[in-house]
Design brief:
Pfam family, one: MreB_Mbl
Low-confidence stretches: 334-340
Shape: globular
CATH topology of the largest domain: Nucleotidyltransferase, domain 5
Keywords: ATP-binding, Cell shape, Cytoplasm, Nucleotide-binding
Binding site for ATP: 158-160
Largest sheet: 5 strands, mixed
Helix content: 25-40%
Strand content: 25-35%
Strand order of the largest sheet: 3-2-1-9-10
Distance between the termini: 31 Å
Number of domains: 3
Subcellular location: Cytoplasm
CATH superfamily of the largest domain: ATPase, nucleotide binding domain
Number of helices: 11
Radius of gyration: 21 Å
CATH class of the largest domain: Alpha Beta
Mean pLDDT: 91
Number of strands: 18
Protein name: Cell shape-determining protein MreB
Amino acid sequence: MDKNNLSVGIDLGTSNLLIYVEGQGTLFNEPSIIAIDRATKKVICVGNDAAKLVGKTHDKFDVIRPLQGGVISDINLIQEILLFTLNRIFSSEIGVIKKLVICIPSEITNTEKEAIVELGHNLGIENTIIEQEIKAAALGSGIDIFAPKGYMIVDIGGGTTDFGILSLGDVVLSKSIKIAGDYFDKQIIDHVKLIHKLEIGLQTAEETKILLASLTGPYPTTEEGETLSYEAMGRDLITGLPRSTIIGAKEIREVLLNCFDPIKSVLLSTLEETPPELSGDLVDSGILLSGGCSQIPGLTTYIEEIAKVPVRLSEVPLTAVVDGCKKLLKMTSKYFYSEV
């Protein structure tokens, strides 16, 4: 392998940024967050270091997620976070990158796609290619999307839930809804405010979701078999003083089931619009789930009851997209080049 002619794949996710380097594996997998000095506009840190600053208000820096709900809120900050990260990986020698594949949410506009390609050019990488995350996730999960057969993937990430029907190497139909992990966290915050009269932060909400989330079947339990609960700490809405409250798994299931109602609607509309021949294929091929929130206990059963076809979880739900990048980079460009 020519170390001066490397290929790089990037999963530009709302929650996490993952970077794969040919021959070296996934070298970066951290939150898509950047901290900027207000005075100098220079990058202070990105990823895990920036995530530690979330919720810690400060008059000298801003902590920003450049992607919000699967939409680019600031293309310049996307460039800054990539430049900072790639410089760190390649010791400021980005010139060794000769091919770059960037995977994006399906709802990004053509203008945003053009901006991302231009972003790669600005980094000095002329051979910059973009692909939809659902396509990469299917490849990364081991699906032969080039076969004359229909496949469906549902990717539940941080900002969006994306639905895709794939066949013969292309996305035949795709839909997206801005309801996913980040939205779940906000709904948990609202629930705790309403029921417990306590204001909690996003990190506490996420911890609660991770520990207590489920959609069907038994509630999460302790090693002793007792239903799990979580002691959340925050600010009392009445007194303004610090306080804690106990949140139960049953509460969180009710919150999530409400969140999944619109996801259910888009799932059904996607299936209804799928061409008949491909729809018939789904009886055998079923539906593949990927993304961080696809791991919610009981989700496969929940989707099976709605779609009436087999549902399985990707073996690599968190890294399916970047694993797909690895395969895309090995293919001839005619198979995966996306024109904008």
